[in-house]
Specification:
The protein has seven helices and five strands, in the order βαβββαααβααα. The chain is an alpha/beta fold and 209 residues long. The strands form two sheets. A three-stranded parallel β-sheet has the order 1-2-5, with helices on one face. Strands 3-4 form a two-stranded antiparallel ribbon. A hairpin with a 2-residue loop joins strand 3 and strand 4. The model has no long low-confidence stretch (mean pLDDT 94).
Amino acid sequence: MHTAYLSTAYLAPVQYYCKLYAYPQIRIEKHENYIKQSYRNRCIIAGANGPLSLSIPIVKPDTLKCPTKDIRISDHGNWRHLHWNALVSAYNMSPFFEYYEEDFAPFYERKYTFLFDFNEELRQLICSLLDIDSDVIYTNDYLPEVPNDFRERIRPKHEGIDLNFQPAAYYQVFQERHGFLPNLSIVDLLFNMGPEGLIVLHKSIHQEL
């Protein structure tokens, strides 16, 4: 069986969901030490002025090394209100935002304690909306060397080489202004393409696994 390893991620990019679509089994890492400046607590959407990064503030851990599963969400800066407003502003004119709005709005009204739980409930919603049905298992411990390891290869900066991912273009609201912006958050694909987002994921997988 083909298995891929992923980190947890906040509204992860298209590349991440290509792995969820392509691999029959996914292991999502719970026991790594938390890594800053990654998709674990941030996503990138397409705003009116170009790519916009949204970061979830976290409670600073008591120790330098803290398992990702124990990272708590901070209420600092009224981030839920700001993130939801940013999503509405960016995608209110997209073809499918109104269709999915009521699915996503509760995530920005309810207070979650742990980042991992918040990310996972969002991922489960998105997989359901896109009809992605990989067998997802959470790790029981941290293994430094695993096959098909994308835990650190899918990240905002210094992305590792991924020959199996070549982002297919699709309609974006501000495309005439900025050109096509590849590998944004999965919500960019979902709000712009709806159920046909699954076709875009399929086209973005360069090589069958």
